[in-house]
Each structure stands twice: as C-alpha cells, then as structure tokens.
Design brief:
Elements (H helix, E strand, L loop, with lengths): L1 H16 L19 E2 L16 E5 L8 H6 L4 E8 L3 E2 L3 H10 L3 E7 L6 H11 L10 E4 L15 H19 L4 E4 L1 H6 L9 E5 L5 H4 L7 E9 L7 E6 L3 H11 L2
Parallel strand pairs: 2-3, 3-5, 5-6, 6-7, 7-8, 8-9
Antiparallel strand pairs: 1-9, 2-10, 3-4, 9-10
Length: 261
C-alpha cells in the first residue's frame, strides 16, 4: 500500500511540473496545426494570424505548468524561452522549460531581456553562461523594450544612437559564441523611439497585439509576429503569448534548416 501511494504521489508531482516525460507526439520536424484560443481576441485586418500555418509560443516563469507533449500536439511548433535579464538574473523556469520543450521535440530558442544599467558585454556573457549551445536550436533573441519595473533601470533610457551601439555589442558577442545571427524582439514604442527602422542586418520578431505588423511597423519586415498575450492552449495552464512565423510550411522548413544551429 505504501509503495502504491508513493507511486501515485510521484505521478502527481510530475504532472504538476508540466513537463511530460513520455514520447513526443511525432518525430522532430512534423508540424501541427494551431489548436489555439484567445481569452481576448482581436479582429485583425489583413493579414490575420490564422493565415500563417506555423505557430508557437514564448514562455517564462509566468507559465508555471506546461505539458509540452500536449502543447506540441495542439500546434506549439516552436518556443522562445526567457533565459536571462540584465547581468545577473536567470528566469527560474528556464531550465525546466528548455528541457521539457526539448523532450517534446518542440523547436526551442532562448531570449535575453536587456537592461540599460548593465554593460552589453556583461549581459552577453551572462546569457552565454546560462543558455546551452545545443544542436538544432533557434537563433538567440535580444529582447529590446523599455523596462518600467526595475527599481534601478526603469529611468535609464539612453538616446537612440547609444541604444543601437549597445545592441550591436551584445549581438556581435552572442553571434560569435553560438554561430548564429540573433533575432531582435521589440515593441512598437521602442522601435519608433530608437529609430530601429534604420537598424539593418537582423531579423525581427515583432510584438503587435492590437494591429498587424504592417500597421504597427510600416515598411518593416518580420520573421515572427507576437500577436496575442492571452492565448489558451491545451497542455498549458493559464494564458500564454501566441506567435506566428511569416511564411508557409515549406518556407519554415527551409528557414529552419538554414537558421537552426
């Protein structure tokens, strides 16, 4: 009886962690249609997110329970996972999310939330220290947005030229280590205030949850579009950010073969 109780407790513990240890729902590379809902849907003009066939999520400590096998079977084909902030903060869920996504054969990548009160060199090395250089992963991501919550960094807002200089330092160091050119994530306000329309040579992952990227970032190309912060997906407890890849399934496979490490 005691051994049976212990076995049940072990199962419940694993379920609570959300990282299913079973076999993935399909071999790596198989794509699933998005079975997503939205707690606060937006009626986008053309193009609508549903026009794009390849969808995924980004996740951080706020996603406390993810069954990655279930999430993948319901259309989470890729996941960007928050790894680090500034020069000394590691997202407490990163390792679990990284391992769980990997076991489910979800194509995964990591992102760094930038702070303007720490040098780009220190931040790049902190990211490198904590994010594995794993085969088949997405390019690293530099998350550039104003930080209103930090008690020390919230009011540190350099001019656009200095912002771009710091970005290039971080990007060069990280690219040299991982052998992949990073992707830049940003918001409409940050993009506009720091003249990122002039920042060339990198792919963009654009946040736009009220308008299409075409409307929010006129003339800018994008590879990933974060179109919702209130997504609902079987296998994920609570709300999660939803993202779309800009091309067809065939373009995704080609892009991934070229860009994955």
């Amino acid at each position: 009886m005691i051994s049976r109780i212990l076995s049940i407790l072990l199962v419940l513990t694993l379920a609570a962690c959300g990282n299913s240890g079973g076999k993935p729902p399909a071999a790596p590379g198989v794509l699933f249609a998005a079975n997503f809902r939205d707690a606060d849907p937006v009626d986008f003009s053309n193009p609508r997110p549903g026009r794009f066939p390849v969808h995924g999520i980004d996740a951080a400590r706020f996603q406390t329970s993810i069954n990655w096998n279930s999430a993948r079977a319901n259309g989470v084909n890729f996941a960007f996972l928050k790894a680090t902030e500034g020069g000394d903060l590691l997202d407490p869920a990163f390792k679990d999310h990284w391992q769980g996504a990997g076991r489910a054969a979800v194509v995964r990548g990591a992102y760094h939330f930038y702070y303007f009160c720490t040098s780009p060199e220190v931040q790049a090395q902190w990211f490198i220290r904590n994010v594995p250089r794993s085969r088949g992963t997405l390019p690293p991501v530099l998350d550039m947005e104003w930080n209103p919550f930090s008690p020390t960094c919230a009011k540190v807002r350099p001019p656009a030229a200095e912002v771009q200089r710091q970005m290039r330092v971080w990007l060069r160091i990280v690219e040299a280590h991982y052998g992949q050119r990073p992707i830049i994530y940003t918001t409409p306000r940050f993009y506009e205030e720091n003249n990122l329309k002039s920042f060339h040579g990198y792919e963009y992952w654009l946040r736009s949850t009220a308008k299409t990227p075409r409307e929010a970032y006129p003339g800018e190309g994008w590879t990933f579009w974060q179109y919702s912060a209130t997504g609902l997906i079987p296998g994920i407890q609570g709300e999660v950010d939803l993202n779309a890849f800009s091309g067809s399934r065939e373009v995704w496979n080609t892009w991934l073969a070229r860009r994955a490490q």
